[in-house]
Amino acid sequence: xxxxxxxxxxxxxxxxxxxxxxxxxxxxxxxxxxxxxxxxxxxxxxxxxxxxxxxxxxxxxxxxxxxxxxxxxxxxxxxxxxxxxxxxxxxxxxxxxxxxxxxxxxxxxxxxxxxxxxxxxxxxxxxxxxxxxxxxxxxxxxxxxxxxxxxxxxxxxxxxxxxxxxxxxxxxxxxxxxxxxxxxxxxxxxxxxxxxxxxxxxxxxxxxxxxxxxxxxxxxxxxxxxxxxxxxxxxxxxxxxxxxxxxxxxxxxxxxxxxxxxxxxxxxxxxxxxxxxxxxxxxxxxxxxxxxxxxxxxxxxxxxxxxxxxxxxxxxxx
Length: 318
What we know:
Elements: H1 9-20, H2 25-32, H3 36-45, H4 56-74, H5 78-88, H6 94-104, H7 111-123, H8 163-167, E1 173-180, E2 187-193, E3 199-204, H9 209-221, E4 229-232, H10 241-247, E5 251-254, H11 264-273, H12 288-299, H13 311-317
Helix pairs in contact: 1-4, 2-3, 6-7
């Protein structure tokens, strides 16, 4: 295959026009005075995922997004990336690496830059992602377009939360997420109090708005006075949050898509739960009794960040 040369937007519109007139690859190549391999590569790289066709507008967005990502990766030198890779191989999370870079090196980068690189590296056969306990969800492929999935008018973004939530200065601010088993049907709901790390786990019969909302209400009802806010994952299963706000004096917030580190308490707790429900395990036969047992084990386990008190001690003392 010959060397690929970037096509102009005008050429992309010409390809779209010729394809709609059922011109062959050879004819398109002849009219644009481009090699067949260049046209073929263009169609492979920039074909619309939505309708499996080629459209100039989408092709231009894809190409622009790729160049932008490449610029972000190339912004750092090989030596700087070697520092990041060294810490990744020591099983450090991107958040820990960024904090370390800020304190001990003359450069820094964002958590998202590292996560994006790991996703790119994984796609191209790399294995660095295996050093992470959690790898973020795949990024969207509809480059350049607005992400409308999971959008519900009125949702409060995590950035609008009161400052005291971020500082863990008082009890009553929770994070919520779901964990799905290998059958992609049976799952659990986890609610974690940020200050104490106290966790509530509810078994779900299905990952639906109705089921998740009902389970959350059952969980909150037993601890109603200890709930002030909840920050949920951005999944559509939490779109029944207004019902929760109607039943209880609670304000709900939502994290950004694919930004798992914004709900660090929840992500850390989900990692601890995997000691009892390993990843790639079916949740079908996990009962509510088992969920309560796991929660009890975690709530009575001393934590270093709590000066080796247990989440239960801190939660009920507050």
